Amino acid sequence: MTLPESPNFFLIAGPCAIEDETLALRIAERVKTITDRLNIPYIFKGSYRKANRSRIDSFSGIGDEKALRILRKVGETFDLPTTTDIHADEEAAMAAEYVDILQIPAFLCRQTSLLVAAAKTGKVVNIKKGQFLSPSAMQHAQQKVIDSGNDQVWMTERGATFGYTDLVVDFRGIPTMQSYGAPVILDCTHSLQQPNQSSGVTGGRPAMIETIAKAGVAVGVDGLFLETHPKPSEAKSDAANMLPLDQLEDLLTKLVRLRAAL
Question: What molecular function terms (GO) are annotated for this protein (predicted)?
Answer without folding.
Answer: 3-deoxy-8-phosphooctulonate synthase activity
